[in-house]
């Protein structure tokens, strides 16, 4: 008899490892898997962000206010507010988001108009994209991102039967996009404009828009983007710095890029340790904001940088689960919008720090310093959690958990005396 030849896949060691892996991943079949993936990844990013904001801002905070904790304290307050907003939002039924879409869109456009009003609008680093009311400074474009996501998702879900006809399904969403992008561009914020445009494209793709439409939109971008770049000296210098013209570190657009590279190189593989950054000593501009990833790489090294990337991948995977498992067009398109918003903005921010993309001045979601950005991103996380609670079996599982805890506590022995 001829002996049967076994492949390496049939070996006992491989089979045993495969069974262990399947056992460990079995929890992904739980109806609460998506909920906890979103909650865990977002929570860890916020926690890491608070630690790194404290480290990256301590020197400049002390120089400005004689306290190394001033910027961290503000960020911590906004984080608490954002967590409360996310918690309340996660308990809302889906119909509430449909009802709030249009009022929130109107409010976002109104606040974006206020950016151009003297005495209310504030210019920061060449971009006029803020309003100051009393002692509170708000970035209306962050509200606009969430408002646009809900508004476009509502329109496309209501016109689902007409997706084959762009004039009846997609055209009604164009005025909201054009108004929001136009108002943002009045403030010269090209980075946020790009993020909003990509969010819109991602939602159209998820909704099933015709591929020919994306060809026309790509052609439009190829025409308008160079014009937007070459009509601004600041943007032109950043493009030139990105293309490699940084032999002199003091050239426009080069200083921040070069010192970001110094931070990453100085950290090496394992990093200098928490709080040990050298570049945060007033060398690297916006170390606690747009370039916080450089400080993460400098202090926490490659493991810290890869951890951040992994958390965004987990969040993207959780959003994909929502998109793939739901039959509700509103949930599907809105989840895609939030996923594209957070993940694309993270990709652009990290790519800018690494020199893969030009520096466009967008923060790292959930991590960078910025109150309105953090609160609105956590609002978006709350929306995702609300969607995840509506998955089959999720609501029932969450309802049973407190009962299980109560039963467990009831059988614990009581202490005497």
From TrEMBL:
- What is one Pfam family matched by this protein? FTSW_RODA_SPOVE
Q: Which GO terms describe its cellular component?
A: cell division site; plasma membrane
Enumerate the transmembrane spans.
Answer: 33-55, 76-94, 100-122, 143-162, 174-201, 213-233, 300-324, 336-360, 366-388
**What is the membrane topology listed in the Swiss-Prot or TrEMBL record?**
Multi-pass membrane protein
PROSITE patterns xref list: FTSW_RODA_SPOVE
Q: What are the GO MF terms of this UniProt record?
A: lipid-linked peptidoglycan transporter activity; peptidoglycan glycosyltransferase activity
Tell me the pathway.
Cell wall biogenesis; peptidoglycan biosynthesis
What compartments host this protein? Answer: Cell membrane
Q: What is its EC number?
A: 2.4.99.28
**GO BP term, pick one:** peptidoglycan biosynthetic process
Q: Which UniProt keywords apply?
A: Cell cycle, Cell division, Cell membrane, Cell shape, Cell wall biogenesis/degradation, Glycosyltransferase, Membrane, Peptidoglycan synthesis, Transferase, Transmembrane, Transmembrane helix
Q: Which reaction does it catalyse?
A: [GlcNAc-(1->4)-Mur2Ac(oyl-L-Ala-gamma-D-Glu-L-Lys-D-Ala-D-Ala)](n)-di-trans,octa-cis-undecaprenyl diphosphate + beta-D-GlcNAc-(1->4)-Mur2Ac(oyl-L-Ala-gamma-D-Glu-L-Lys-D-Ala-D-Ala)-di-trans,octa-cis-undecaprenyl diphosphate = [GlcNAc-(1->4)-Mur2Ac(oyl-L-Ala-gamma-D-Glu-L-Lys-D-Ala-D-Ala)](n+1)-di-trans,octa-cis-undecaprenyl diphosphate + di-trans,octa-cis-undecaprenyl diphosphate + H(+)
Give the family per the record.
Answer: Belongs to the SEDS family. FtsW subfamily.
NCBIfam families xref list: ftsW
What is the protein's known function? Answer: Peptidoglycan polymerase that is essential for cell division.
| Full protein name | Probable peptidoglycan glycosyltransferase FtsW
Q: What are the top taxonomic ranks of the organism?
A: Bacteria, Bacillati, Actinomycetota, Actinomycetes, Micrococcales
